[in-house]
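seq as requested:
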Amino acid sequence: MIKIVYAYDLKETIVKGLGLQSDELKISGFDSRDALVGRSVAYEFDVEIDDKVLPFKLLEDVHRWEYVDLPIFRVEDQARSTGDEKGLVKKKVTGERLPVLAPFQLAGPMELWIQDAKDMRLSLPHDVDAGELRKVILSDGAVVTVKGARSVSLRHPVELPLPLNKSQNGFASGLLTLAERLRHASTSQNQLLSLRIVGPTSLTSPTPSSPSSKTKLKLKRLAPGLVQLSSVSKTALSTIDLEGEAPTLLTPDQFTTFWPVTSVNGSHSNLLGLERLLGSVLGSKASKEGSFKLLKADVSAHTFVKMGFRVERKLTGDLSEFGQLPEWQTKPETVKMHFEVLAKVDGDKFVPERIMQVNPVPVEHTIAPSVATGNTSMSKVPVIYTPFSPFSL
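struct tokens:
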């Protein structure tokens, strides 16, 4: 038995966030049956520059909105049918399929901490029974494909050197240059990049093109729940068959691959946009010697809900916001505002992410001719004679 947070609680949170706490307000339109559901990926970063922490949160555009009967909606319908819209104790309805990240590739050297060790699956390329794997160390040159992960996050802060400029060859962007420096530090100073993976996950090695391929991975058990994966050859940054599961192929040129996520090409629009954002935040520091810290980096897949609502409030006599109203028009007693909220489904509750005011379809006023002419009798309208034309019959 748990407490379910319904749209009623979402409504209260939004109203308080907008500062609309007056008793004269009327909120309507919160109906889960009209909500649109979509899947997207959220990126969260915390950057420390000169002892100042700057949080960033980015959302990918939802490419498909649809009406989906989520379990949380079915619980809310039960509450609505019983008149308990404020969320009394109910049984949780299960059956929702949680969103996952698209398959991606990670390259060593790094260490992976598995949150759901019991649901971990290892294939090299055939399934390997290694018990509950809580930690996997990828040696330099080892590449694995991660499938089924719900989120990937940075476990420890990372200090990145400046300036944020292109390499001498002119091909690598600033972020690719930083990634290459971080990879070199992980190799030379033995400071492994540490990531946490949440969700039932499978780690698979790239499919070898031939039985004698050197892309196979070797497994070494270091302790219970701890294994090390190493490659026969360290030339793993080469073209790999991903069976159509990753968006790009790796190339021999290290300056076109973003380490440690080697399935992302350096010319990807999201990566270039993130570089421009970081450059604008750093300002003049981007071209000077120094460093900054990446305190948090989290990439996670979420289910988002989009629904509209209306706020109606009484007017106190001030009609300035309507402009100059004609004398014939009935003066409004209330004003209606339309909003749209984008909320994240977090377990058994909604978390509002973005609230936007939308403009509804404007209402066209119809005026009777008698009102437009000032309700004047036709007998009092002056007769106007048009000039005579010789071409008229």
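Helices lie at 7-18, 71-81, 174-188, 269-282, 369-372.
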